[in-house]
Amino acid sequence: MKFDELDSRMRVFETSHDFCVLPGLYIVARLDGRTFTRLTKEVHQFESPYDIKFRDMMLTT
Predict the structure, then answer these.
(1) Going along the chain, which residue ranges are E strands?
(2) pLDDT 10s digits, 5-60
(3) pLDDT at site 35
(4) Between the CA atoms of 27, 9, 61 and 53, what dihedral angle is there, to the nearest 10 degrees?
(5) Whose C-alpha in 9, 31, 50, 61 is 20 to 30 A from the C-alpha of 3?
(6) 32, 40 contact by CB (below 8 A)
(7) DSSP secondary-structure letter at 44?
(8) Residues 21, 2, 55, CA angle at the centre, nearest 5°?
(9) Which residues fall within 8 angstroms of residue 54, CB to CB, at 6 or more apart?
(10) Measured in whole angstroms, how far is the alpha carbon of residue 6 from the centre of its chain?
């Protein structure tokens, strides 16, 4: 599946109306920010599509 197709399909689940998370459910955070692509591809050169270093950084955060 191409990134653009996956991106379109996942945006359906994004909402700004859910202000709480139900207990016992897993959540997924979609991170999007200023120059995020530059950070991940140029500065840190993470492996695509999944990088162990990035995972460890997110867990530490």
Answers:
(1) none
(2) 988 888 877 766 767 888 998 887 777 778 888 888 888 888 888 899 989 988 99
(3) 83
(4) 130
(5) 61
(6) no
(7) S
(8) 50
(9) 40, 44, 46
(10) 12
CA max distance for the chain: 38
pLDDT confidence of residue 55: 92
pTM for this entry? 0.43
Q: Which of 21, 17, 40 is nearest to 29 (CA)?
A: 21
Q: How many C-alpha atoms does 26 have within 13 Å on its Cβ side?
A: 1
**Contact at 8 Å (CB) between 54 and 44?**
yes
Answer whether 53's CB lies under 8 Å from 46's CB.
Answer: yes
Looking at residue 38, its pLDDT comes to: 85
CA-nearest of 27, 11, 10 to 19 is 27
